[in-house]
Write a structure and sequence with these properties.
This protein has 26 helices and no strands. It is an all-alpha fold.
Length: 587
């Protein structure tokens, strides 16, 4: 009887392990014919229907009782979609990813109910170990990086998301290294060592801080540090305050050191957060609409630098970000305080469930979730699919619950989950082909063969019109093929989705070509205020003034170009300043 039960347990465990590995497998997809991030998304779309169906059957075998966390996840997704529709943006790609990641959360809820989620954890640790080894191979030059400026990216496009993925696995691996025995103990130690070898090399300060806090939670619960600290205070009431002050001083010095390590980067993020608060102040309740950060941010940053109350350092570090580099701020910008409260409710409810389910057993999951959330305060993990899937897994792991009284109810719920899976994945083939066609056409775009490219871009525009980079290139093609009015129509759509001032530069050149000089002036000024450390908008403005006969304005603007300190000095900047000196001499 015991043998039969063990066979059943390990058979189901193997199935759970394989399904979990498949759900996490988008991490390893690197691109090929598609860009890294896009390739991961389409692999996820391809694999999800195949794993969702067996999860329905597993739900009938091991049904669970729904919790408050499950309800809050459902409400957050529903609210985000309604908020998106309220702002009239329709259902775009990021909304589909949100829904499918929500479905993945419920799939993990089923998978983690088998043997307390141990089989899922084995899959996660295996993925973490492979990623760590991948990064180590890149450090030694054995495998290529996926970024031309960084040697260490793992299977990701950037070392930032890569470090965030590893750091969320670290506390879980440490937990198993401290609590398991024999082979699981050895394997967990191997994962911890692999992560320790790679994480410092990522040079990610946020990942280091997240790893320290997440692992401190695990170590604290394993060694009962809270009780030991209380006992130490009672035994040494005078030494304890002194030791506490020293610890906080050391932490403060380390924080200042990490800030100074990449000061300009930190100042840039502080500016992003500062500008983002102005968006929140203008849309406090509902936000700007789910997935709608970059466009409103560009307008808010333009307004901020128009007021002339900024510092020279802020002007120098300003850029055109796609995200807020803080998920809590970005959620508030997009979904308002309602969305933020729902998201915080998900986290609080999940951690509360973990405490109820014996925290010493769940310390690894809580530490991993906290590490992920700390990292998300300084980065953009929800914009990277494998990290969003990882968050859904960690939240599901913390949301353990008892068996449900009615398997039928759970089975019906999971059958309904197949509907959004089918809806959002059924049209993937057409979109994949559109992305492939776009990537192949970029060769001709970069060669400036615009007459060939514009017709092909026009054909895929209906499919990729929610992708700002595509809209920008399409708008350029139209501009360079003497369609300035149509180009501006496309570029205005791009400006809604992006904070890139180059969009306005091309629009200004279009207005200039149509001899609408007032509109050209306003558009060039918008571009220069959005990111004031860039010289190119002012250069175009001076050339436009000269062409339209506004000589005094041309000379004043040319002097601004000559005297302006750029963020990065280059041969292009030198050439523009040389042209402006020539313009002044000529007039």
């Amino acid at each position: 009887m015991l043998l039969k039960e063990n066979i059943k347990t390990y058979t189901l465990g193997t199935i759970v392990f394989i399904i979990s590995l498949l759900l996490l497998s988008s991490t390893f997809i690197t691109g090929g014919e598609l860009e890294n991030r896009i390739a991961k998304i389409f692999w996820f779309y391809s694999i999800l229907p195949w794993v969702a169906i067996p999860c329905v059957l597993l739900a009938l075998i091991r049904p669970f009782r729904f919790t408050l966390t499950d309800l809050l996840v459902f409400l957050y997704i529903a609210y985000s979609l309604l908020n998106l529709h309220y702002f009239g943006q329709g259902i775009h790609a990021r909304a589909g990813i949100l829904v499918l990641v929500g479905v993945t959360y419920f799939l993990f809820r089923i998978l983690t109910s088998f043997s307390s989620g141990n089989f899922v954890n084995v899959a996660l640790l295996a993925v973490g170990f492979i990623e760590a080894m991948w990064g180590a191979a890149q450090l030694y030059g054995l495998t290529p990086s996926f970024h031309n400026q960084f040697d260490l990216t793992g299977s990701f496009f950037n070392p930032g998301p890569y470090s965030g993925f590893l750091v969320a696995i670290f506390p879980l691996a440490l937990h198993y290294a401290l609590t398991t025995h024999k082979w699981p103990h050895i394997i967990s130690i191997g994962v911890v060592i692999a992560l320790l070898l790679v994480l410092p090399a990522t040079m990610s300060r946020s990942a280091w801080v997240a790893a320290i806090v997440g692992c401190a939670i695990v170590v604290g619960y394993h060694y009962h540090l809270r009780q030991q600290c209380i006992a130490f205070y009672r035994a040494h009431p005078i030494i304890t305050p002194v030791a506490t002050i020293v610890i906080f001083l050391v932490i403060g010095i380390l924080m200042i050191g990490t800030y100074m390590m990449k000061k300009s980067s930190a100042d840039g993020r502080l500016l992003i957060w500062k500008v983002s608060t102005t968006i929140i102040a203008s849309h406090p309740v509902t936000g700007t609409g789910f997935g709608n950060f970059a466009g409103p941010y560009g307008k808010a940053q333009e307004a901020y630098f128009t007021q002339d109350n900024y510092t020279p350092q802020e002007e120098l570090v300003a850029d055109a970000p796609e995200s807020a580099f803080n998920e809590f701020i970005q959620i508030t910008v997009e979904n308002g305080l309602i969305g933020l409260l729902l998201f915080l409710g998900i986290i609080a409810s999940a951690i509360r469930n973990a405490y109820r389910a014996q925290i010493h057993k769940q310390a690894g999951h809580v530490g991993a979730l906290i590490a992920f959330l700390i990292f998300s305060c300084f980065s953009y993990p929800f914009n990277v699919l494998p990290l969003a899937i990882l968050f859904s897994l960690l939240t599901a792991q913390c949301t353990a619950s008892s068996s449900a009284p009615s398997p039928r109810i759970v089975g019906i719920f999971y059958l309904f989950l197949l509907v959004p899976v089918w809806y959002f994945t059924s049209g993937k083939t057409e979109r994949i082909e559109a992305f492939k066609r776009w990537r192949s056409e970029q060769i001709y775009f970069n060669m400036q063969i615009f007459k060939r490219t514009v017709d092909n871009y026009r054909a895929i525009y209906p499919i990729l019109k929610d992708h700002p980079a595509f809209l920008f290139e399409y708008g350029q093609c139209l501009s360079r093929t003497d369609n300035p009015d149509q180009s501006n129509r496309v570029l205005r759509e791009a400006a809604v989705l992006s904070s890139d001032p180059m969009i306005y530069n091309i629009m200004g050149k279009n207005y200039q070509a149509m001899q609408q000089y007032d509109l050209a002036e306003a558009t060039f000024l918008t571009a220069s205020r959005m990111v004031p450390n860039r010289i190119y908008p002012l250069y175009l403005l001076a050339k436009m003034y000269a062409e339209s006969g506004q000589i005094d304005k041309a000379i004043v603007t040319a002097n601004l170009v000559i005297n302006k300190k750029p963020k990065v000095f280059s041969s292009a900047v030198e050439e523009m300043q040389r042209d402006m000196r020539l313009l002044i001499r000529n007039y």
